[in-house]
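Incident log, structure service

09:12 report received: a user says their structure output differs between two submissions of the same chain.
09:20 pulled the input from the user's history:
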Amino acid sequence: MTRSDMPRRVYLRHGSYYFVTLAGKWLKLSREREGLPVMYRALASLTEREARSDLMPAVIVRWLDSKRPEWADKTAVDQERIATEMCEAFADFRPAVVTTPICAEYLRRYTATPRTHNLHRTMLRQVLAFAALEGLREGYNPIDNIPTKKMEGRRRVVTDAEVTAIKAAALQQARNGEALVQMIDLALLTGQRISDLIGLRWQDVTERGLNVQQGKTGVRLLIEWTPTLRAAIAACERGDNIGHLLKTQSGRGYRYSGIRSAWVRACARAGVQDLNIHDLRGRAGVDAMGDDEDMRSAQRLLGHKGEAMTRHYVDGKYARKVKPTR
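09:34 re-ran on a clean worker, output below:
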């Protein structure tokens, strides 16, 4: 049995099957020589015991399982990472005894990183609400007394010179540099999230334009053709026009971790610092505004439902035009 055939979180080590909990504990299921049926029975028994547990780690696992179908792959990875930390911190707690001071103590470790603090706060709030629906706690949600951390909008601007340098560095990489250049061009032209760009397929290329359905919001966009967008799409052609637009050298679609790693390597080779791959989306929003500073144009391209989110992306990334006094 290969790793891809294994049940989730089950591993074969030193002749035995183990189940790895979200808290990182390795629980032995059976010996390999006993056969797969024994392993699966042990796994079913363990899963049943976990499902009946009223400790926080079991509640967190059940909440994760209930939410996972709603998430894109990257979101699921991020959420499981947060859940792992939460399981470790609340390993011996039942939902009914989790109070505001206990939650505040847990979140205090993320004080210096507002975004991470808010992500953990949101998950903990949802987990405790889920526990209330299961009848494992009563009363108000203790997270409600803990305010979110204010997040400053990112002001880093991607310059044309940096884009040129990163693309040149990408083409020097041994693997998949050309696809990274194609992704950068598409990101700057369309303003879409990286996860949505690497999910594009050739059937999304239509006579009217490029069809995009945003994974995070479900918003559907038709990005109309321009000569530069047509050229960027043509650069992705590899003769078959089947499957993903952006492909690795093996012909497969990219994973987010792969394209991000290629970006980090190219930035390091180009000597470009403090530049996040998501800054491409902010630059596209600024470009969409144009000389008239049309926030609505940026909002439509980025697919935001409200103008406030668009402002969060673009504020501080452009100089507002003003006229001098007479």
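09:41 both user submissions now match this output. Likely a transient worker issue. Closing.
09:42 reviewer note: The domain at 161-314 is CATH 1.10.443.10 (hpI Integrase; Chain A). The radius of gyration is 24 Å.
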